TrEMBL record, chain A:
It comes from the Bacteria. This is Purine phosphorylase. InterPro entries: Nucleoside_phosphorylase_d, Nucleoside_phosphorylase_sf, SPL. PANTHER family: PHOSPHORYLASE (PTHR37822:SF1), SPORE PHOTOPRODUCT LYASE-RELATED (PTHR37822). Pfam families: PNP_UDP_1. It comes from Caldicellulosiruptor naganoensis. The lineage of its organism: Bacteria, Bacillati, Bacillota, Bacillota incertae sedis, Caldicellulosiruptorales.
From TrEMBL, chain B:
Gene3D superfamilies: 3.40.50.12110, 3.80.30.30. This is Radical SAM protein. The lineage of its organism: Bacteria, Bacillati, Bacillota, Bacillota incertae sedis, Caldicellulosiruptorales. It comes from the Bacteria. PANTHER family: SPORE PHOTOPRODUCT LYASE (PTHR37822:SF2), SPORE PHOTOPRODUCT LYASE-RELATED (PTHR37822).
Length: 279, 336
């Protein structure tokens, strides 16, 4: 699943349309859209709201280690080194107030520029820019999103993508303009998503036998009346055996049908099984 | 790695994280000159990046990043008992660089760190100062390529040369630079030093292909060794770790015959032999990050070290020693 967190509807709308997402009518404090293995949540403005929405989405929908979380939205550029509409993948994200810094793992190639993002709790304008600012770009969500998402997902699957909207001299935000800028950035975003999917698919351990271990262990735990300690040991022995032999031992299925009448009998069977798994 | 993998993965060192304190250090400047297309990210402390929670070691290995930092505190550490001391007292190791550009499946570094990224402590002058002070009190035998392969990174940072030049002026210091690299060219212009041992780890080609990812082939390692000995360097051969694989006897016999078929044993200073062994806690962590034939072997544990059963270990060592006996006197062989 790909989780997208956007602050405003103007930022979300082009993504909803492009990915063909449909509004979820489950009771929730948030506007959520989903479809095609993508879930988009609108967080509203601010570090805290972004963090709360991210946590809500990732826990409510049971995010796993191969899932991806992206924060997509507009930002202001501190330096004129950027142009309006530049799509930026953040390689460092700072919470201006807690001074905490976060580093996504950028393991794949992408077509965006890179920069350091600094997140504030209030809108930042050029004339009120703090002297100690380190970010090249500023926003009001990135740090909240990243801190929350990186608790649930590995760092290579959590990214902030920011599109330069202004140079901190803005007066009023124009939703139509935002929509069009996000729309233009979609090819870069899709490219990143595809590479991340490929990375997770190709390089994570994809042995089906290993995925089945919890099921097997549970069956054996019941049939052999194993203690918690024996169950743990069995799990690790089974995993090792499969990695070494690329398959389960043929004789393991006999152990599913065993009828145990005493603790001792269970232990004897377990020892027999252990011997097989150590071979 | 196939070309399709290469096409979507960021290349190694696509990002360099630099501690603000070392931004203007000459070594940093030199390294960054060689990595002009990399993204530079400023950091306060290398641990912010290196020790982050949520890193996936095995995926990071596909695109390692570089971290430049300043080393503080201790510079020298007593070597652990699972290492050979080759008869030297005061056996210490030091770590200018953490982690390696190669990726051997049995490498203890995978159990030691939560990150596959490479850290270079650029302030090598502080290491030298510390060693100067220690040498005033005692002689030192120092492994300088302990948590990395220093020579393999010589193009990025010429620390092997720096150590050799430093050692040249020190009477009571012996250094060992252990490597699988074939980059002897980087040292060719240096004068061989009596107190510098270049130690090459050698493995059968079958083992290299299966477990020592990214490392040079056996034949190219042998050519580099030959050049080093011809140029007058002291060379040690390390048959360590010897790994158990199904047909290990045949594979290692063929391998040792090849090595000494190509190499004059008289040119070798000494030889170390040891089977795979690893601290229990490291193995536990390696298992979490990597599921492979090495980590899943049913080792026996004693005193917090995991290794092959006593019988298997004895059989493996004895077999190797028997073959080595055909080529080298036992006085030159160190076994652990
Ligand atoms: S060459 Fe040495 S340090 Fe590098 S990965 Fe292999 S065992 Fe580890």
């Amino acid at each position: 699943m790909i989780y997208i967190v956007a602050a405003f509807h103007a930022e979300a709308k082009p993504l909803i349309e492009h990915f063909g997402l449909k509004k979820l009518y489950e009771p929730s404090k948030f506007q959520i859209f989903s479809g095609n293995d993508i879930l988009l949540i609108e967080s509203k403005e601010g570090i805290e709201k972004s963090s709360i929405a991210t946590t809500f989405a990732l826990t409510k929908f049971g995010a796993g280690s191969k899932d991806i979380a992206l924060n997509i939205g507009i930002c202001g550029a501190v330096e004129n080194a950027f142009s309006k509409g530049d799509v930026i993948l953040c390689n460092k994200i700072i919470n201006h107030h807690s001074k905490k810094a976060f580093y996504p793992d950028i393991l794949i190639q992408h077509s965006m520029k890179e920069a350091t993002l600094e997140s504030f709790m209030h809108p930042v304008k050029k004339d009120s820019l703090p002297v100690e600012i380190e970010g090249d770009i500023v926003d009001m969500e990135g740090a909240g999103f990243f801190e929350a998402a990186s608790i649930f997902l590995p760092l290579h699957n959590v990214h902030c993508i920011k599109i330069v909207y202004d140079f901190l001299d803005f007066e009023k935000i124009n939703p139509v303009e935002i929509e069009s800028m996000i729309k233009q950035s979609i090819p870069h975003i899709e490219n990143l998503i595809n590479s991340l999917l490929k990375l997770n698919l190709e390089f994570y351990n994809n042995t089906p036998e290993i995925d089945n271990i919890p099921l097997l262990v549970n069956k054996l735990k019941n049939s052999l009346h194993l203690t918690a300690y024996m169950t743990n040991e069995l799990e690790s022995l089974l995993k090792d055996y499969i990695i070494r032999h690329k398959k389960l031992p043929d004789s393991i299925f006999e152990f599913f049908e065993v009828q145990i009448n005493s603790k001792k009998e269970g232990k004897n069977y377990f020892d027999k099984l252990r011997k097989i798994l150590l071979s | 790695m196939t070309s399709s993998e290469k096409s979507f993965l960021a290349k190694h060192f696509s990002h360099v994280y630099v501690e603000k304190a070392v931004l203007s250090h000459p070594v940093t400047i030199k390294i960054l000159e060689n990595l002009r297309s990399s993204q530079i990210v400023k950091i306060d402390n290398y641990k912010e990046v290196f020790c982050r929670a949520g890193q996936n070691y095995s995926l990071q290995e596909k695109s390692k990043k570089l971290i430049l930092a300043k080393k503080w505190g201790e510079f020298l550490y007593p070597a652990p008992s699972i290492c050979h001391n080759f008869g030297y007292d005061n056996f210490f190791y030091t770590s200018n660089i953490l982690n390696c550009i190669y990726s051997c499946e049995y490498c203890f570094l995978k159990g030691m760190y939560s990150s596959a990224n490479v850290v270079i402590f650029v302030n090598i002058e502080d290491y030298f100062k510390e060693i100067d002070a220690v040498l005033g009190n005692m002689p030192l035998y120092l492994s300088v390529s302990y948590e990395t392969d220093l020579l393999a990174l010589e193009k990025i940072v010429p620390f092997s040369s720096a150590w050799i030049e430093y050692a040249a002026s020190k009477q009571n210091l012996t250094i060992e630079i252990r490597t699988k690299s074939t980059n002897f060219k980087a040292l060719e212009n240096l004068k061989p030093q009596d107190n510098v041992i270049l130690a090459w780890t050698l493995s059968p080609q079958e083992i290299i292909e299966k477990f020592e990812h990214g490392t040079p082939s056996l034949s190219s390692r042998l050519s580099a060794i030959k050049k080093a000995t011809e140029n007058g360097w002291k060379v040690r051969l390390c048959f360590d770790p010897i790994l158990y694989i199904e047909d290990w006897k045949m594979v290692y016999e063929k391998f040792l015959n090849q090595v000494f078929g190509e190499m004059n044993p008289d040119k070798i200073v000494d030889i170390s032999v040891g089977v795979f062994r690893i601290p229990k806690d490291y193995l536990k962590r390696m298992k979490k990050a990597f599921a492979n034939e090495i980590t899943s072997f049913p080792y026996e544990e004693s005193q917090n070290i995991c290794t092959y059963s006593k019988e298997l270990k004895e059989e493996m060592i004895n077999t190797i020693l028997l073959i080595l006996g055909n080529f080298v006197p036992s006085s030159k062989i160190f076994v652990i």
